[in-house]
Each structure stands twice: as structure tokens, then as C-alpha cells.
Amino acid sequence: MLRVILCLLLGTLAFWSMPARASGDVSCGPVTKLVYASYTGCDDTAMIGPRNDSRINLMLLMADVRGAAPLAATGRRSIFLDLSSLRQSSAGGESPFFSDGEGSRCRSNVAGAASFEAAIRANARVPEQERAALIAARHALQPDCASDVSAGTAIARASRGVTSDAGKAFAAYLEGAAAFYDADFDGAAARFGALVSARDPWLRETARYMLGRVAVNRAQVDYYDDYGSPREGKQIAPKLLADAEAGLRAYMKAYPKGAYFFSARGLLRRVFWLAQDWARLEAEYAALIALPDAERGIDAASLAQEIDAKLFASATADRLRDPILLAAFDLMHMRGKTYDGEPCCTPISRAALDAQRPKFAGKPALFAYLQAVHAFFVTSQPDESLRLLPDASHQADFGYVEFSRQMLRGIALESKADRNVRGFWIDLLAGARRTGQRPVVELALAMHEERHNGLARIFAPDSPIRTQEIRDTLLMNVADAKLLRQQAQAASASPHERRIALFTLLYKEATRGSHRDFAADARLVPANAPVEANYYDFGTTDQLPLAIFTKGRKLGDYGCPPFPETQSRLAANPGDAKAMLCLGEFTRVNGFDGFYLDDSPPADHLGGTPSQFAAPPYSRLDAYQAVMASPKATADDKAYALFRAVNCYAPGGSNACGGKGVEPAVRKSWFQRLKRDYPASRWAQELRYYW
Q1: What's the CA gap between 387 and 369, in Å, rounded?
Q2: Cα 618 to Cα 31, 194, 531, 587, 613, distances in angstroms
Q3: Which candidate, 203, 221, 194, 18, places its Cα nearest to that of 105?
């Protein structure tokens, strides 16, 4: 079955740098194997390594920091981690962190209105009539930062009716907010500056914070083009950046536990980025990484995203100092080719890697792991990897670095066909407790069992391999009829697995010659099974159309009987031409041409060993040719076989019916034979072309 990778390059948000050769902004099929160092963006695992999106590697590394929150679960147990489900976003789909860029000043309008209302309601000195008018004016402030339309008309009207000192202070704040949203940064700064000593505590704090935010926005005026990219040759005046930094630091010093502290700290990082002050930017990221999650003010996924976009995009290994940041960066430079066959990055040499040792003085295990990854994936030296990674498989709870070390050790043992590697994987399971870890160990164990006659152990009631996508893959691609029949009825199997096993069993029996067994096994189809349902995504669908084999209504254009009758006729006589054609009709009209149950993964993937199911996959084209050559087939059978065989190549000239293709000259001969030998048949009259 054709595997297509469709790459969708996302446009940058305003004021975003593109992620550093790392972001998973593609849609493709995951690579279900262990020995893999290329980046696709589709198959990140809990094993830190070159194949992962650098943001995932950063999150795994951060999760080992003392006090870090566990990596968030990603829904059902899966081999692969999903970055999109881990990252926070605002209601509009953007990151809620200003450090991601003032893509629009107006993004804070809704939250700002709520804060303003809460503050003015808490101030008893504001008369109720003024309070109501100012709240209404604030909610009427609906700025459009992409246009030149003023946002402050309603505020100006409301301010004229305010006479109390407390009300005037809140009105002045609203005038500053309107000026800010209108890009009148001088006016905004003047109004907020006058409020830093206001009597109301919310006004004092918010005004001081807004002075820093105004300065950041002033620095960015005319710096970006309409697509959010810096204008060519445009530089921000150092004084503007210095003013922005000073404003933000003034707020952070005055309010170290303030409501806007984390936002101000994020904007300060943005100032460093705008100034291309990479040393201070890295130092900020290193300081955040060292903090427990609750003290960062930004979730791990969003922080990883920011580091990837803001630091890695222009980083070099010699410039980076922090070991966690450097490790994630180094792993990007140990990758193989990308999904389109192009080199990903300039590979790092072992000598250059070894020269980094002083930077990892406090993290020797992490550094040894990087050396072992390089030895295995870059220079193909599994013995060196084993030397660097001693056995530590017996642990109660693996951190992600130690988990990755032991996973790589197991992979190296597999590459050397070590006789104890199965036991190693089993030992590793006990400590694989954190998000994403156990499924990766199960994948390793399952691939070992698959290649060492251990398929039955995977499906034993006490099997440690529980990840459903692993079990599904082996049932669909490798299992024989006996195992499929067992799992279709196994009380220990999930309902999903029983349906997968039965559908696969009936499909392969029906199309691969086990017609007598089909009749017996069709009795396992539940009476309430659906006739129509999604069978193109076995992994996520709740139902499968099992009744398609027993009550299917799509029977084709050749007057075929119910499908069980077709199977009975083939069981009695495999050469029955009409039944052979009806089997072809069943596969054609139900969309089973090129079906993935007739495909198999590459040999080094999970499920890539030869299928244990008897007989090769079905081909309609082979069946049509058999009917053409059959001395017992009727004239109408032969005419229909010729008609369908020619149509296998419609309309583009490629064989859509499976089996070995034939040259155009052969298709021409089929067309001519149909017209010559069966001119009165419906099929000869309908067919006007060959392809």
C-alpha cells in the first residue's frame, strides 16, 4: 500500500522565527522501529535521541530537573509522543506567552478588560455611576491592531463624565490602554508614567508593567514586514532596546511576585532576542530550565517551543554553554537524512563532541549518552556504545536520561544478537513508569519476540506487551489464522483487539484461499455488527464493519450472490469462474484494492517479518487473467474478466488491481480480444478505450 508523506509547511506567526530544523510541522506516518536517527516530526518517543523533535528532547531533559512536573500524558497509550497535545494555547490558538512575540498587541485585550473590571469594582472610592461607565467603556474597547482605526472613542466620551479622583485615575489608565492599542506609544507611556504612584495598587503595578511593554512595542516599530519577518538591513536602535530592558527590570524589581512578573520576564527574553544577545538569552533559558515548573511561569512545551524558535535557529555548538541546551542541539546534528532524502544538518564529529566535555562537567551521564548516540548512529560502533553505557536496567523509576541510556544499550545488544537481550528488555519494563516510556520498551521486546519465534508469547494472557498499536500491527501483518482466531475470541483481549483479529482473519481467509475456514469463522461475527463503518484506520476506530463479510450489500455489477455464497462456491471449487469474478467484485466495490492488510511494513519495522498467514495477498488482475485462460469459464465470464482487466488501468495507465502489471501491448490485446470474440456482450459495447 502506498505510503504518502504530505508535508505542510506552516507560515510563521507574526514576530516568530522559524523553528530550528526541529519542529514537527508535518503530517506523515510514524516509523515503527528502534534503529532510526532521521527526523520526520511524526515519531517522537520517550527515548531522547536524534529522531525526536528537538522540542520533545528538551521537554524530556527538563522533566528530569528536580521539581519538574511529570510530562503530560497524551491520551491513549502510544509508542509516540504528540507535541501538539502538550502545548498550552489561548482561545485563539496562539501561545498565551508574550515571549512568543507581540504578534498582535490586541491579543491581551480580553484578559485586560477582565482585570480592569475586577480592579475598579474592588475600589470603593469610585462612585458607582462612574464605575459602570468606565467598565462599559473598557468593554467597548475592541481594538484592531492591524488597522489605523482609533480604539479610544468610547473611552474619551466616558472620561468626560468622571469627576472623582479615583475615577479619573482609572480613566487615565483607559486612555493609556487605548493609546497603546492605537500604537501611540509616546502617549501611552505618558499616561502610564503618571500612574506609577497612583493610590490604587492595581493601577500602580499595571502601569509600571505597561511601561515596559510599551517600550518593547516601540522598539519593534517598522522592524517587521507584513509577513512577520525582519526587514532586510533593518536594525533596532540599541537605546530603544535598553529602554525596554530598563522598563521591564524596573517592574520586576518593584514587583518580584507581581501579577505580570512572568510576562515581564518573557518580554525581557524577547528583548535579548531582538538585540541578538545570545549569551544572555541562553542564560535566561538555562535559569528557567533549572527551576521547578511552578516557578517558571511557562509550561515546559511552550518553553521548549520558544527555545527552539528563538535560540536554536541561530545557535552554534561552540556558543552554547548550558549542558541541557547543548545536548538537545547536538542531537539535531547526529541525525540521518530527512524524509525526502536530504541531509538534515552538518553532522558533529566525535572530536568536536569530545571537546565539549568541560561543559558537561555536572552531567557526566548525559555526556556519555551523547557519545554513545554518536558511536551507534553516526559511526556505527555498537561496542563503543556498550562501553559507555553500563547495565543499569534494574531500577524502580527511570528518569528520561537514564531511560534513554538503557534503551540505547538494549538496541546495541540487539545489533550484536546478544543472547540475554530479551531478559534485558523485560528487566527494563519495571522502571519504565513515566509518560511514554513503557510503550517504547514494549516495542523493543515485541520486535525481538517477532524475530525470534515469540509471537505467541506476545499474545499470551500474561504478556507484558499491552500497547494496543503494537498488538494491532502484529495481528494485521504477521499473525497466522490460528493466532487471529484465538485473539478474536480471547477473553483477555480488548473488544477492539477482538474486532481487529476477526476482521483481519475473515478478510485474509476470503481473499487468500481459505474459503472453507471462512464459512466457519464467519459465525464469530456478532449479530449486531455494523455493515458499514471506518475500516481505514483500525487504530482509532471504535467499530469495524464485520458484517460486511456476512451481510454486505455492495456486491458489484455482475449479478453476484451474497458474499457467503461466493465463499461457499469457492470452497467447493476454487476454479469457479463466476465465484472468482464475484470475489473480485467484492474487493473492488468495497475499496479493498491496495488495502493495507495486503501490505507489509519494511523488514526492519515492527510487523516487517514475513506473514505467517498461508498464501500471498489477493490480486484482482491475477484472478481476471485466470478466468481468461480457464477452459471452463463461460463466454460472459471471459468477457467480464477482459473488461475488468482493461479497466484496472483506467484512467491513468497504472495497475490499481494488484499483482504484477502488464505492458500496454498486452492491455491492447485484451481490448481487441473483447471486441473480436465477444462483440455482442454488454462489456464489449461499454468499453471504448484501453489504457
Answers
A1: 11
A2: 26, 81, 22, 9, 12
A3: 221
The partner residues of 125 in beta bridges, in order of sequence, read none
**DSSP string covering 416-470:** TT-TTHHHHHHHHHTT--STTHHHHHHHHHHHHHHTTT-HHHHTSTT-S---HHH
- Backbone φ, ψ for residue 666 (5° rounding): -70, -45
Q: Count the alpha carbons within 13 Å of 351 in the hemisphere toward its beta carbon.
A: 0
Q: What is the Cα–Cα distance from 208 to 490, expressed in whole angstroms?
A: 67
User: Which tens digits make up the pLDDT trace of 418-464?
Assistant: 999 999 999 999 999 999 999 999 999 999 999 999 999 999 999 99
- Whether residue 674 contacts residue 639, with contact meaning beta carbons closer than 8 Å, is answered with yes
Of 555, 553, 595, nearest to 579 by C-alpha is 555
Instruction: Give the list of residues 6+ apart from residue 259 with CB closer than 8 angstroms, or none.
Output: 115, 205, 206, 209
Q: Write the DSSP string, 527-550.
A: TT--SS---S-TTT-S---TTHHH
| CB 443, CB 79: distance < 8 Å | yes
Amino acid, res. 387: R
d(CA 99, CA 414): 44
pLDDT tens per residue across span 458-517: 999 999 999 999 999 999 999 999 999 999 999 999 999 999 999 999 999 999 999 999
Instruction: Summarize the chain as % helix, strand, coil (round to 5).
Output: 55, 0, 45
Contact by Cβ (8 Å): 51, 36: yes
